[in-house]
Structure formats: structure tokens, C-alpha cells
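Can you make up a protein sequence with its C-alpha cells?

===
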Amino acid sequence: MAKIILTTDVAHLGEPGDIVEVKDGYARNYLLPRGYAIRATKGAERTVAEIRRAQEARRIRDLDHAKEVKQTLEGLGEVPVQAKAAKNSNKLFGSITPADVATAVKQAGGPQLDKRTIQMEGQIKSVGTHPVSVRLHPDVTASFQVAIHPAG
């Protein structure tokens, strides 16, 4: 059995900062190469507090906080996103990812969002306005629009 510290949320195992024991092969072949965990050493155990603080900063505390964040997100209106587009066309080079949306929301003065909570209807591959929703809490989902503009 290997003793590891989780760095991300792993289904059926634990949350970031948890110290768990798993089979050696699971740790060596899956968790460690993907960066989901680090080996539990004395130095690594000191970083548990840092991981927990970072996770707590992103976490929605309760239903009231989720409703407050929803109001803030929906009050932003259209969130502008710059992307490279083909000349004389509305098609983008690549697509807009949830990480791009999270960054744009933060730059527009909104809260810091976890990219895993952002849900988009298909991939965004064209200039224009597209709907996006964010699952803040099991009972609260915020919806807003992102406006894709071609970059210079």
C-alpha cells in the first residue's frame, strides 16, 4: 500500500489535501503520472495546508453564497472573450475552452470560477454570442452569455 496526498478531487477517493492509502499500482500508474496526487513525505505533508487553502478559496461555501455568486455572474452581462479568427470569416482558429471562459469572467470583474463547473452547449468555434452555464451548487446554476470577438 502506498501513502499519497491528493492534489485534486478524485471520485470515490477524496478531496485535495487528503492523505490516503491506495494500492501501489494505482498510485504509480494512474494517480502520480496524471498529477492527481503526490507521494506522502514529510515535506509534502507540509504542503497539505497550502492545497487546502487554495481549494477553500475556490469553493462555494453554501447555498446563500452560491446565490450571491449567481447574481454577480448574471449581472456581468455579456462577457467578452478575444480569440483568433480567420480573416473575412466568423470561424475561430481552435475553440473556446471552459478555462478561457473562466479567465474572461475573472478579467470582467467576476468571481474566480473552477473550469470544471463551466458547461457549454457544444464547442464554441465561431465569433458571436454563445450561452454558458456554471454549476455553482447542486441547487444553483448561473447562466450568462460570452461574446466572442476576433483578436486584432
In short: Helices lie at 24-31, 42-58, 63-75, 98-107. The longest strand covers residues 140-150. The domain at 77-150 is CATH 3.10.430.100 (Ribosomal Protein L9; domain 2).
